[in-house]
Specification:
This protein is α/β, with parallel strands linked by helices. Among the domains are: 3-94, no CATH class; 459-663 and 672-688, Leucine-rich repeat, LRR (right-handed beta-alpha superhelix), CATH 3.80.10.10. 12% of the residues lie in helices and 21% in strands. Helix 6 (677-700) packs across helix 7 (702-725). The protein is elongated.
Length: 731
Amino acid sequence: MESVIAYVVDTWWVNTIVHITTASGFNSGIEKPGTKCIERERVALLKFKQGLVDDCGYLSSWGTEEDRKDDCCKWRGVQCSDTTGHVVMINLKYKVDEKCPNKPLRVLDLAFCGLSNSVYHWLFSLSTNLLVLDLSSNQLEGPIPDFAFRNMTSLVDLDLSLNQITAISKSFRDMCSLKTLNLYYNNLTAQLPELFLDLSGCTRKTLKSLKLEKFGQLSPLSTLNLDGNKLWGSLPDFSVFPLLRRLDISDNQLNGSIGDGLGQLSKLEFLDLFGNSLHGMITEAHMSKLSGLKYMDFSFNSLTLNFSSDWFPPFQLEYIGLLNCKLGPHFPKWLQSQKTYKFLDISSAGIVDHVPTWFWDLPLNLYYLNASYNHMKGIVPDLSVKSDGYPGIDLSSNDFEGPIPLLPSNLTSLNLSNNKFSGSISSLCTLFDEYFSYLDLSDNRLSGEVSDRCWSSWQGLKVLNLANNYFSGKIPDLGSSGCSIESLNLRNNSFTGELPSSLKICKELKIIDVGNNKFSGTMPTWIGSLPNVVILSLRSNWFGGSIPLQLCKLSNIQLLDLSFNDVSGTIPKCLNNLTAMVRKGSSNSTISHIYVYYYSSTLDGFVTKYDDIAILAWKGTDRKIPSNTKLQSFDAASYMGNPQLCGPPLPNKCGEEEPAKAPDNNNHHNEDQMITIGFYVSMALGFIVGFWGFIGSLLLNKSWRCAYLQFLNNMNDRLQRRMITSPSYCK
């Protein structure tokens, strides 16, 4: 293995390149007849030597400042010019396995070096005194050869993370001093018990059984990091590693239940089982001896935490991840003992219960709370005590009711969607911290006008979702002080007025959904100045005028819905430029936001999600669809609700051509259908009532009949006189 480091030394001379090369043996100084190094360059070399660590004495041939007669051109590895005597190169080559008479190599950090599997042969020749070896973030592939670490019996810390390793070496069994092993984010595919057989170390040489309980001496391993691999199978008996402090096997494909051996790891501080297929129960027997546990993540498994109501955990957790674990139906009382957690995720935990008052006494150092997707009930109390951090709170998809609670002013995100909160949101207008970036109040019973103060204090938001409430009033002019919003959803409210043109300063907008409101005015032209818009829904408002040509500038648009407005006129041909609407999409992918929270919305009677499948809604328009454009690639159902729209892909032909008969579909309900059965019934009833109401009154009332006949005679006489007096009649 070679590594070349170039130094430019210009203190005493200019443009002298010094190469230090690690390869295959030393080069001595090259002596040329009649040349001798220049004094100032000799002094510069000596100063350069002072900045090097040379425990092995490789530069012992170099002179000293006192010995001025020493010719530096004769020094080991120094090369001078034949004509000028200037030093032009220092070439120091040596074998990396050459024995050094002084200190042995203890620490070797080769992370991010682009090393391949050839490094294993080089590692085999290293000293057995190596304690720390870091090979992370390289290009190691496949299984580790058995010989690779055979001589490293003193190794304490080994980092092989972020490579493409598929299997580990049997030589790991002899690493009796190994305390930290990092294998996260590789491609390990073995069954976990087989993998542990190769890790357990210091076993009896006569071991023939693959069962872990047959192991003799126990490994001193304290850190085991295997997350992000493809490990499968059931969990082994972790009790063979009694000194473990950190165990991370997250993001694998492990299944089965958790054995009691986990509960024997009394020194465990960090336990991460996130993202596997583990199932079964976790009881007090698993947790009662883990007094030092601070980090616990069982998320994305099918585990059930079954603790007695009076159990008091021996630990104080800082991180609690129980997403998708079963804690309910009753609220887990053991959480009352946890006073120092910074992160708590009990979402999708099957809790169907009123939240006890003690739960709302949140720790001051909280930075994330997620209790979403349960059926928690009750009224959320005052939570305005300011946290030491910048917390995010997610209470969405529960049964909370009452007014919006007072909240910490230093929130970073707030999601209260899909609950039963009611009243105004004036208490949220003070959440104007620069880190507050996400607000979702959709699907509640909130009402009233949103004050100008709220709108102005929310300009730093990335996501604002007020959909499916009872809000009213106008959106004020936002000024020009800056706007960071990327997703704006006001769908299904009663907002009025025009969309303020000041929204055009929000250049990061990707989602604009103001459908099903009472907005009016002409179709906004300034939307065309927002280059990143992916979803634009203005449906079911009172917008008028024609479709602005500026919409053709939305090169990234994937969903455009202008239906149920007063839009008229022709469809601009430049819409052919909206090529992002016709790209092939995935039926199960949704447009996601950078904050993990996904965005989806119902298009009534039209489509269930905002997928990246091409969707076009041109309801409320008429005339011919431009030909030879991408618009012909859409399904005809995308144009429903426009009875006067014609041309491909619709069956209705334009001009004198007869429209093709549409197939009868009794199961499809068209909300925009003009001619219905009720129409014909009403027409028949109207004719009958009108005709017989008039004729019947003439038959029954003689005076009305005589007056009506006299009126007809008079009209006949007038028409005859006009015709006789007309000049054209005389001709």
